[in-house]
Amino acid sequence: LDPYNYDPYFAPHDPIRDPEQVLNHCEKLVLLDDIIVSPPSEARRDDGTVDPSQGGADLFLRELLSNGLLEAYYTLLPPASRYPLRSMWARPWLHFGWRKFLAQKLFWQDLDLIQQTYGSNIAFYFAFCGFYSKYLIGYAAVALATLLCDAYFEGEAQHWLGPLYGIFSSVWSVFFLQQWRRRQNHLAYTWDNGLAHSARRKMVRPEFVMTLRELYNEAGIAGHMLLSFMKSGLKLDRVEHAAARNSKRAQMHRDAFDDSSLQKKLEAFDEAFNDSSLQKKLEAFDEAYFVPPSVMRWSRARSLLISGLFTLMSATVTVVCLALQDWLHDGDVRILVLSGKMTGSLIGGVTNGLLIPVIANLYRRSTLWLTDLEMHRFDQDYKKSITVKLFLFQFFNSYNSLLYIGIWMRDGTRLRRQLLSLLLTGQMLNNAQEMLMPYLHKLSQQYIETRKKLGVGHGFLAVLKINQARVLDAMQTKVQKARKLFRRKGVSKKKMDLVSKSSVREMRIDASELQEEVFRAALEQVVDTKFLPEHANQFQMDEMCELAIQFGFLAMFSSFLYMGPILCLLNNILELRIDASKLVLQTQMAEPKIMFDQNLWQGIFYFLAVTGAIVNLFLVLHVCFEACDDEDPETAMDKLFPHETDAERLTYAVYVEHGIILVQFCVLMLSARQADGVVEDKYCQDLFFITEADQYQKEQVRGSRKEHLGHIN
User: Fold this and answer.
1) C-alpha–C-alpha distance, residues 637 and 621, integer Å
2) Cα–Cα 20 to 30 A to 353, which of 128, 280, 417, 663?
3) pLDDT tens per residue, range 618-627
4) Kind and range of the H or E element at 318?
5) What span is annotated as the signal peptide, if there is one (predicted)?
6) Of 270, 288, 306, which residue is a domain's last?
7) Cα–Cα distance measured from residue 547 to residue 125, given in angstroms and rounded to the nearest whole number
8) Alpha-carbon distance 707 to 713, whole Å?
9) In this structure, is residue 49 part of a structural domain?
């Protein structure tokens, strides 16, 4: 019984939106990559010539890029996705109108279309950004109510707002992350279209292979070194050491079993793993290249040293900016109607906020270079290493001034001003950079191209990834005309599912002329694309790191900045459309990739949520409301519990902190990790597949019995 025949509920993923598309864009690119990588055809036609359609091009594009033999290759945006992505996603106010956009489509995204076009790696980021922004609406409403209460109440009631708001923030952060985990598992299950399973096997990085291959071809010493690495990976060095220690015993075994199967096995082992055989494997297989982790310890130590220097630079910048604030405070410098302290906090905070992304960008560039030198063998390990380094540095770079003011200076008023300055400066600078930099890059490239007077075909090499499953997709109007002609001629709908060369010949249209127009249209798109900046391979990682730092501001310092969720919500609404516009209109087409590090980012956000609960309560207990140069400064806990001792206040704070962590743990345990529909769907599919496998096994047993009885007869 096949449930797929009558109930789409049992389908492993949502049906493709366009019924005329057998495969989506990402699936076609995966198959096309497989064709490009596959070896050339050796099949022969009836006339003896080679049939090229049965093989591939035997080209590894990433290896050619690593070698410098290939300048660039472009993935073109499919025509079926071009209009909805550009008009409905990147600029929805032009398609829906401002009133409908603000009322109904503020967070609207066609996630399935994004995943089918750009892959799950980018689609997961936009899904998280939209989901996070929606949950910020309720958080922002509570923040607005807290601001109103702070302006209305006075005395002890006002002092309760900060701790209570911090407790709410800690519980909200874990509840939101658990709901996102359910949503993430649902999307991962929905977008798993079968091709993801083939990519889950770890593939050796072509950049890793090409670096070692260049060393192997330069000198014989490097070649012997790579052979020794390969032997250590196969643990052959242990066999050689054991054979050297027991050479007499080995010789006795060889003499005793000269004509036995053991002697043949030993000879086969020596023949399979001698130096010449290993050299052939190095030349033929990328998987043969291996570097022991102990060899790369110096590279990792060098990365730690450079990271330490950048950390020292960030701390120095923080000290200088805080010293600037103190100097402006003491000098009583005023701007307009602002007081000296307000002016000092504003100028110092904005200066620090401007220098933080500069240092982060320098560290990012150095980290990419250093991680390349670490020689990670797999893409997953490479990306994980970069993600952890960038997040840890961004964590220190973004929060060190706040923690210094809160822990060392204990000035609550100054902490609030610094929080507001860093949050606003970072958001405005990041949005301005993302909007202007692609546009300025395009203008500069067009200017350089015009001055050099380089035309297409004059020293410009491009490998086009064109949608081969439907040749006429680039000429959508001609496809529509062809279908109309089919209907007039009464051709059946089955022939209308796929417009191919044969159908064009049936319509008596010159296929070669049409293909030339298709290629000309694609080439024009390449010419327009090459002026755009390259899409960063770390786009998803950079954007997720930015959201993680923003989430950390809300989780760790919410007690001192009530309007933080409101600012983050407004920023994310703008950020969502800026990133969509940059992805669709202002950068080259991103190569679709599958996301493997969703669990890593989930762990990072959980770390921020738990750390936020601890930091929030500690700052409430430690930070003073007035400046700490007073003789008897008071914290929020001092004003809430004026008659208790310091030990009793500390005990209360520890109890509250442990209670918050217990509530967070209960939320994690009580919330289901997967949506109910996904669990039921998996149950139905597992039952169906088990039943089908059992039926297949019974048929095999029956067939073998019949065959056995036939032999007996």
Assistant:
1) 6
2) 128
3) 888 888 765 4
4) helix 297-331
5) none
6) 288
7) 10
8) 10
9) no
Q: How far is CA 196 from CA 356, 561, 644, 645, in A?
A: 38, 43, 60, 60
- pLDDT top residue among 49 and 167: 167
Task: Please report whether residue 712 resides in a domain.
Answer: yes
- Determine contact, residues 315/235, Cβ cutoff 8 Å: no
Give the DSSP per-residue string, 683-700.
HHHHHHHHHHHHHHHHHH
Of 288, 308, 335, the residue that ends a domain is 288
Range of the domain at 683: 675-713
The tokens for 98 are 């401002």
pLDDT value of residue 262:
54
| Residue 684 included in any domain | yes
Are 418 and 345 in contact by the 8 Å Cβ rule? The answer is: yes
CA–CA distance, 326 with 427 (Å, rounded to integer): 25
Q: What length is written for the chain?
A: 713
Tell me the pLDDT tens digit for each residue of 462-483: 333 333 333 333 334 444 454 4
Per the structure, the count of domains in the chain is 2
Q: Is 709 exposed, middle or buried (0-12, 13-18, 19+ CB in 10 A)?
A: exposed
The predicted-structure confidence for 111-143, as pLDDT tens digits, reads as follows 888 888 888 888 899 999 999 999 999 999 999
CA distance linking residue 584 with residue 590, whole number of Å: 9
